[in-house]
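User: Some background: our group keeps a shared notebook of sequences we're curious about, and every so often someone picks one and asks for a predicted structure to add to the entry. Today it's my turn. The entry only has the sequence so far, pasted here. Could you supply the structure so I can complete it?
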Amino acid sequence: MTVRVRFAPSPTGYLHIGGLRTALYDYLFAKQKSGKYILRIEDTDRTRYVEGAIENLLTAMQWAGVTHDEGHMLEEENLVQRGEYGPYMQSERLDIYRKHVDKLLEGGHAYYCFCSRERLDSIREEQKEKGEMLGYDGHCRNTPVEEAKERIEKGEAHVIRLKLPKNREILFDDLVRGQVIMNTKDSDDQVLMKSDGFPTYHLAVVVDDYLMGITHMVRGEEWLPSTPKQIILYEAFGWEAPKFAHLPNILNKEKKKLSKRHGDVAVKDFKNKGYLPEALVNYIALVGWSPEDNKEIMTMDEMIESFSFDRVSKSGGVFDVDKLNWVNAHYIKEGDIDRLTKLCIPYLIKANMMAEDETEEKYEWVKMIMETAKERISYLSQISEYAKQFFGEKVVLENEEVKEVFKLEHVQDLLNTFKNKINSAEVVDAVFGKKVFKMIQKETGIKGKNLYMPIRAALTGQLHGPDIDKTIAILGRENINKRIEYVEKNYI
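Assistant: Of course. Here's the predicted structure to add to the notebook entry:
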């Protein structure tokens, strides 16, 4: 059996990190089994459709490196569908659903319902008052077919509902939760086809998964209660159901389901903030799953090799931004310096620290900044705040402790000696930055903190920071002179 899995989002605006994790687990499982991973767009709820959402979704998934084998693709900015099981958008499959719902009606597995919105609302209110399970009461369940057809011919609005067996126990094996037993008495007769001719999720997902050869249905735990209805539909059609895997929710620190009100939850939010895709994917994989060796830093290939639904937790995984920052910082430290530099330049431009037309001219200089920053930042947008210490002629003191350093007796003579060395040097670079302190120590006898701290304070206004030799190389001769002059004038 060839494994075929699908990720089936709705085009409602953005790819949530919970959706990315579902897609990632699909991808890891499919690749491990040499199977296929399909993207299908479930757009039957037209009230929630957002223009451009599919393109945004594809862009986010492409960025994350979770790429599908079939479905919608972006090719030269054009939206196309690739694969032999299409169309891959539900709104383009309406005739298929209509044909299959007719089979259900003919077999007595579905019926026409003419109940008005007002009646349904009234039933719901009555059920609430009595503390009963909310759901349809089966009012139209036994309406004769001929009567129903007459009412339809007269133009009466209607939906089509599933005729769910009464009080039947449904048992199935879930790849995450093990054996699950549910009873149809805890469900109602689900609407399969809406009055506008569009199917509901419950009909469309079963028809699409079967016709597209899906072998494993991987989705969030919120869909668990709908599984009995879908198993009944598979039986009604005479089809074998796929294997199910219901994933736990991603939770915030308060152990509640993560949502937009808790901050950044869209993949694009993390991309815009400067998280590396491999770091976000690595971390998201571990929110609810762990490999046997509990390894925390993993490449995509390592995750493919290690992934198993047996290791997916039944309980929700907590999304910890601090842990994500730790993972991302690791990838930044290990990252290619040119790639990081190119990714950081837009943040400096946005902060008005450099102009777009200066990118080429200042590239090597920004690269030097990035060399020092990669050890100290957790995500790339922090570069603009970090890089402030290298911009401008003014020296802003970090705290009162820095002022105290400037009161030491030897500071003025030390700075004069340092300026002389800087101005007499042929090249002011990191190599010179290392040599200059040995030269000053030999000449003046000043060493240790008394040597390094006043110079660092004069150059950056801080007592701690990146390697001083690299700081000297980044600032350059002219800026060093201007900064020391500023310090002498304002603080000494």
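Suggested note for the entry: The longest helix spans residues 468-490. The first strand starts at residue 4 and ends at 7.
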